[in-house]
Amino acid sequence: VLDIRKLYGQAGVFTYDPGFTSTASCDSTITFIDGDKGELLHRGYPIDQLAEKSHYLEVCYLLLYGELPSAAELEKFENTITRHTMLHEQMQYFFRGFRRDAHPMATMVGVVGAMSAFYHDSTDIADPHQREIASHRLIAKMPTIAAWAYKYSIGQPFVYPRNDLSYAANFLHMCFSVPAEDYHVDPILSRAMDRIFTLHADHEQNASTSTVRLASSSGANPFACIAAGIACLWGPAHGGANQACLEMLKEIGTPDKIPEYIARAKDKNDPFRLMGFGHRVYKNHDPRATVMKKSADEVLDLLGVENNPILATAKALEEAALKDDYFAEKKLFPNVDFYSGIILEAMGFPTSMFTPIFALSRTVGWVSQWKEMLNDPQNKIGRPRQLYLGSTTRDYTDIENR
Ligand code: ACO
């Protein structure tokens, strides 16, 4: 806490907390994390129970409305989401305006931001009905946007959503169907996909969620706010870690190279970090990583790639890091991204799609937090202060005298 009278002669006191390590920016009833115990609760329900017994759209309902739905409520919600999965036909031209080699996250930032132009009948945030439609549109259309960003990047035709499939199966269908072939979605893969969505659904005030809240605090429309969240998520210290982690595992290549990379991660003069390790809040274990690890084993068993060298390297790396004093002292454990990348790779996704899949999963969290914020009577524009360390007042010098 700094007394700014001593610094600037102005009235008042403020906290100086770079990286917001100990500052609550809001109150919330959505998600609880106990970083020491490794506990994650959505509306009070533990994440491992939700991942095991529930499914993504039910968790979406829980996050959005606060309670688990009845059978009738769930059916209605699923029908509503299914009804919104199509994209405005004109949006295809928007996709086609990007270079084919654009990163799918770049395309998603653009396309989701552009939803404000295609769906401006649901941008009036003062109208609760429009807020509701905007949330449904975002949750429903995000898989279509992510799948189309992928299809466009590999030069294949866009695949329209199929409303007879589940949310996860439909996403796999839009990513992997090609007109000339029959594509059958395996239920184990669709369950694993659904679990990845569920495990990433919300995570309280992380960087991208805080970005969505800050953007929204100015009254910006929901599509613009979620596009801001996607842009923030892209960074390698946040959602981009899953791509960075798999690329690192490929670079390590074989378990015998692990000591070299562990030594680099410990070397203060080397900027290299073990991607997929460490978390700002979890200082014991990441409960999502435990479920994800089990799911990775199931998927690799199904696909007959149990001897996958990447998984072997991942397991050996995890063991070596957990035995190492540096990682123990700094409480660095594998996080959710450590195993999600392995599952996605086994399913056939390129690494560039890992973060878009995170973005589509997290959309419900962003939307739930956005709705909660707008319903809060104390909601006001987010406007942090700074600790100014620059020059004191001085007179302008003419250019010839500098
Ligand atoms: N490898 C090696 N050392 C690490 C790592 C790592 N992955 N993570 C942290 N450290 C070290 C830091 O060098 C620092 O050491 P120091 O105290 O000697 O300076 C110490 O541990 C604390 O690290 P901070 O960066 O201060 O911790 P912070 O809480 O700010 O960062 C973060 C958390 C960003 C997740 C960090 O652990 C990291 O960069 N991990 C790798 C990237 C990653 O996996 N991100 C995914 C996060 S989860 C998610 O978004 C879903």
Automatic annotation (TrEMBL):
<dbReference type="GO" id="GO:0006099">
    <property type="term" value="P:tricarboxylic acid cycle"/>
</dbReference>
<dbReference type="GO" id="GO:0036440">
    <property type="term" value="F:citrate synthase activity"/>
</dbReference>
<comment type="pathway">
    <text>Carbohydrate metabolism; tricarboxylic acid cycle; isocitrate from oxaloacetate: step 1/2.</text>
</comment>
<feature type="active site">
    <location>
        <position position="279"/>
    </location>
</feature>
<dbReference type="InterPro" id="IPR002020">
    <property type="entry name" value="Citrate_synthase"/>
</dbReference>
<dbReference type="InterPro" id="IPR016143">
    <property type="entry name" value="Citrate_synth-like_sm_a-sub"/>
</dbReference>
<dbReference type="GO" id="GO:0005737">
    <property type="term" value="C:cytoplasm"/>
</dbReference>
<dbReference type="InterPro" id="IPR016142">
    <property type="entry name" value="Citrate_synth-like_lrg_a-sub"/>
</dbReference>
<dbReference type="Pfam" id="PF00285">
    <property type="entry name" value="Citrate_synt"/>
</dbReference>
<keyword id="KW-0816">Tricarboxylic acid cycle</keyword>
<protein>
    <recommendedName>
        <fullName>Citrate synthase</fullName>
    </recommendedName>
</protein>
<comment type="similarity">
    <text>Belongs to the citrate synthase family.</text>
</comment>
<dbReference type="InterPro" id="IPR019810">
    <property type="entry name" value="Citrate_synthase_AS"/>
</dbReference>
<dbReference type="InterPro" id="IPR010953">
    <property type="entry name" value="Citrate_synthase_typ-I"/>
</dbReference>
<dbReference type="InterPro" id="IPR024176">
    <property type="entry name" value="Citrate_synthase_bac-typ"/>
</dbReference>
<feature type="active site">
    <location>
        <position position="337"/>
    </location>
</feature>
<dbReference type="InterPro" id="IPR036969">
    <property type="entry name" value="Citrate_synthase_sf"/>
</dbReference>
<keyword id="KW-0808">Transferase</keyword>
